[in-house]
Amino acid sequence: MKTLSIEVRPAEPRDARAVSDVHRASWLQAYSGLIPHKILLAMLERRGEGWWRRAAKGPSTLLVLDIAGKIAGYATIGVNRAPALKQEGEIYELYLLPEFQGTGLGGYMFRECRSILNNLGLVGLTAWCLEDSIITATFFRATGGMDIAEGMEDFGDVSLKKLGFVWPD
Fold first, then answer.
1. What is the pTM of this model?
2. For a FRET experiment, which of 6, 8, 23, 33 has its CA 20 to 30 Å from that of 63?
3. Residue 8 confidence (pLDDT) above 80
4. Sign of CA dihedral 40, 135, 109, 169
């Protein structure tokens, strides 16, 4: 019998092309129709393979979801950037390739991110999403997140509301 390995691990520079591909596919699926098209494409172009190679060596933690050697998702985590929220940890990004969404792997990756932040001594967790990103808001609520903060994110001439979710510890 063949065993399928699934792990969340720190990204390595050699993962840059795969992470770039996950980024492009997941963002196009998540934000097409929400973020103006030209701005979304420009955001994707800024974060190509070289950007992700540098990110794998950078100050925040870049994690990948590795399924039998295939990168199916990524997350970036670190210290909470919103001083008004008392939670110390933050998931900045958590994305899966569209074909892996709805399989439970997002929840698995979320729990791994939260565990890593807890092991770093960061108490509590925050994460943000666009208000109109119904799938993400539903996911955060399903994992126990409470939306207690709001903000605005500018995309050119368009301002979109974002929701801040917290998970106390």
1. 0.94
2. 33
3. yes
4. positive
Q: In what order do the strands lie in the sheet with 6-10?
A: 6-10, 61-67, 70-79, 89-96, 125-130, 158-167, 146-155
Determine the pLDDT at residue 1. 67
Which three-class secondary structure state does DSSP give residue 125?
Answer: strand
**Residues belonging to the chain:** 169
Question: Checking phi first, is residue 139 left (phi over 0); if not, alpha (psi -120 to 50) or beta?
Answer: alpha
Return d(Cα 124, Cα 148) in angstroms, integer: 14
pLDDT score for 4: 82
Query: Angle between the 105-119 and 134-142 helix axes, to the nearest 10 degrees?
Result: 60
CB 75 within 8 A of CB 95: yes
Q: How far apart are CA 159 and CA 169, in angstroms?
A: 32
The CATH classification number of 6-167 equals 3.40.630.30
pLDDT tens digits, 30-54:
999 999 999 999 999 999 999 999 9
Q: Are strands 70-79 and 61-67 parallel, antiparallel or unpaired?
A: antiparallel
